[in-house]
Amino acid sequence: MEYHNPVLLKESVDGLNIKPDGIYVDVTFGGGGHSKEILSRLGPNGKLFAFDQDEDALANALDDERFVLINENFRFIKRFLRFYGVKSVDGILGDLGVSSHQFDVAERGFSTRFDAELDMRMSQKNDLNANRVVNEYDEANLKRVFLDYGELKNAPVLARTIVQAREERPITTTDDLKEVLAKFLPERVRNKILAQIYQAIRIEVNQEMDVLKEFLEQSLEILNKGGRLSVISYHSLEDRLVKRFMKNGMFEGEPERDFFGNFSVPFKTVGKLIVPNNEEIKLNNRARSAKLRIAEKI
Ligand SMILES: C[S@@+](CC[C@H](N)C(=O)[O-])C[C@H]1O[C@@H](n2cnc3c(N)ncnc32)[C@H](O)[C@@H]1O
């Protein structure tokens, strides 16, 4: 089985505007599709650092002396690059979310297609997993997760149902969870709602929103002037953060005005939002929700 089929490959790497001698970072290495493309555009003195917090991705490491793969969370991008003596870079690419590999291996627990233990950790070192969220979070916290990350209107009743059911016995597998929530999963919208529930738990387990914010803030700090940030996101919560940060350099509110009354912003956006064309979606269904945004540090 293929590890991962890269999405918006050409468009996202074009967005980096690669200088052959530059230093680049691919923060979501996965199967290495984007990294290979970046390396193909670098000269002998270029350099590529890649991150992936999933140990499974290490098997895909590329044998190239211009390449370093770091098995860490990209929320620590600045710290780990500093470890390699790198204080600033020319471009950063992020292809957020999970890989096809993570999704297709039943035991990882990311997919509602299989009956597996509740897990959903992208990193095997993570203490928090889906089992702990479902069985240990109090009702208010579960409600927050379903509301904020799943945008589920019936979050309060979902949370209450889980808390009541686990008093009888722990909810440990996908099928347990489906059974407990069965009455909220009418056939017609079953897959959609399950996907929202799973998305919510996954975002919580991997702290995806906080991680993304920390990463974006550090990216701004380490990019050289003229350096590019190219980010592919797969759901609206991520895309909203990326869009606001690229536009304003912040996640909430409006940036300050300069002496002339113009907004003082750290990036200029490059082009418009890019989404995969029908051809790509036909060949790779997982591309269907992808949104690519590109910005250049001013
Ligand atoms: C959509 S896949 C990337 C696929 C890759 N671009 C390719 O072409 O094969 C996302 C990858 O990023 C990793 N990842 C997601 N969030 C991460 C984080 N915060 N830190 C490090 N790796 C992360 C996942 O483990 C997964 O392997």
UniProtKB/TrEMBL annotation:
User: Could you tell me which Gene3D superfamilies the record lists for this protein?
Assistant: Putative methyltransferase TM0872, insert domain, Vaccinia Virus protein VP39
Q: Provide the residue positions that the database annotates as binding S-adenosyl-L-methionine.
A: 32-34, 52, 74, 95, 102
Which keywords has UniProt assigned to this entry? Cytoplasm, Methyltransferase, rRNA processing, S-adenosyl-L-methionine, Transferase
EC code: 2.1.1.199
Chief location bin = cytoplasm
**Subcellular localization:** Cytoplasm
Its Gene Ontology molecular function terms?
Answer: rRNA (cytosine-N4-)-methyltransferase activity
Q: What class of enzyme is it?
A: transferase
| Family per record | Belongs to the methyltransferase superfamily. RsmH family.
| UniProt protein name | Ribosomal RNA small subunit methyltransferase H
Organism encoding this protein: Flavobacterium degerlachei
